[in-house]
Amino acid sequence: MVEEADGRRLLLAPTGETADFIAGTYVFDEVRVVPVEVRVADRRHWTVTAPPLALRFSTGRRNLPGLALRAVPGRLAAHPAWIALWDRPARLLLGARTHGSARAGRHQWYGARDLHPVVSATASYKGESLGTLAPVEPPARFGPGSTPRRPSLVRVTTTVAVERDRSTTGAAS
Question: Residue 27 and residue 141: Cα distance in Å, rounded?
Fold first, then answer.
């Protein structure tokens, strides 16, 4: 998901099925199916490519919020009631929301399970540098959730309740 400086929102998805589900949940101005590649070296050095986006970043040691997230058992961390309980503390401590309504009557919950600060990054979009690492201001506008203000790698289990009480769960980092 990319939000350009003018507010235009672009989804870069690896398959048509993925694009359809995500675009049915969030609002985008454009959706593209592109080759998406993620490589991780030494658990701390990441390379992500999804043309026209290229990103390299390194993470630091898990900080206090990351340690707290890792202490919660996985099944509990992904449970919608637990996630809703932590919405206010997440907003106050990290500037991130944990649940809310989305498109087409969907509701989603973001169960954060780990957090590492991003300590260095280089990124380009359409071949142009995105500049230096900086706080996420203003917050991205893809749905009811949001990202921490400080650049971070967050492991999240996302649950999306779709119409007719069906739900689909997927993990993203």
Answer: 9
